[in-house]
Design brief:
Layout: H1 3-17, E1 20-25, E2 32-37, H2 46-60, H3 63-66, E3 69-75, H4 77-82, E4 84-85, E5 88-89
Parallel strand pairs: 2-3
Antiparallel strand pairs: 1-2, 4-5
Length: about 90
């Protein structure tokens, strides 16, 4: 995945979830990891969050670029404020 493709995915995730997204290289592997924070995740179970995020990935990127995503983290603002992610201490 190129940095331009990662930026395009970032913008698409922010638009879909009306939130903030960040990405970074995952070491020297050429793979990227993403984090998305959105109020839309407040009452959404983690599996649904992931399903919705990966639907955007499928729309924005080609298959070879998708394989360069190591992970996508999805947070509601309250997850970060409480230091917990769906009941698990961080």
């Amino acid at each position: 995945m190129t940095k331009t493709q990662a930026q395009s995915l970032k913008k698409a995730l922010e638009k879909k979830f009306d939130g903030l997204a960040e990405f970074e290289l995952a070491g020297r592997s050429g793979r990227y990891r993403f984090a998305v924070k959105s109020k839309k995740f407040d009452k959404m179970p983690q599996m649904k969050r992931q399903d919705e995020a990966w639907k955007i990935v499928d729309k924005v990127l080609e298959r070879d670029a998708i394989l360069d995503i190591s992970l996508i983290l999805t947070f509601a603002p309250r997850d970060i404020a409480t230091g917990k992610i769906r009941g698990h201490a961080t």
